[in-house]
Amino acid sequence: MALSVVSIGALIYVKQDLGIISSQPMPGAELDLALLGGPIAVILLGPGPIALDHRLGIEPRETAAPREPALV
Predict the structure, then answer these.
(1) Given 3-state DSSP classes, what are the helix, strand and coil percentages for the chain, each rounded to the nearest 5?
(2) Which of 20, 39, 47, 53 is most buried by a 10 A CB count?
(3) Which uninterrupted H or E stretch holds 24?
(4) How far is Cα 54 from Cα 47, in angstroms, rounded to an integer?
(5) What local confidence, expressed as pLDDT, does residue 28 receive?
(6) Radius of gyration in angstroms for the set of CA atoms belonging to the chain, rounded to a whole number
(7) By three-state DSSP, how is residue 52 classified?
């Protein structure tokens, strides 16, 4: 999430005048767009089975259905 914010800020404030591919010595926005694509993919698709938390088995467990109150 933080990388997305930084990449969007770089695109808006720094790379706005250069365009996507720049002929100047300063690179264009292609790297920033590529770096923005990774976090967006994780946000939209989720971490998936290759994520470290899945491999180590430390994912949050699903909670069981709530119990009905006991009748007294």
Answers:
(1) 45, 0, 55
(2) 39
(3) none
(4) 9
(5) 72
(6) 21
(7) helix
Spatial distance between the Cα atoms of 61 and 72, rounded to a whole number of angstroms: 31
When comparing pLDDT for 62 and 39, which is higher?
39
Quick check: 67 pLDDT over 70? no
Q: 29 φ, ψ to 5°?
A: -90, 5
Confidence check: pLDDT of 64 > 60: no
Counting beta carbons within 10 angstroms of the beta carbon of residue 15, is it exposed (0 to 12), middle (13 to 18) or buried (19 or more)?
buried
| Token pair recorded at residue 4 | 């997305």
The proportion of the chain whose per-residue pLDDT surpasses 70, expressed as a percent, equals: 75
Taking the C-alpha atoms of residue 51 and residue 2, their distance in angstroms, rounded to an integer, is: 19
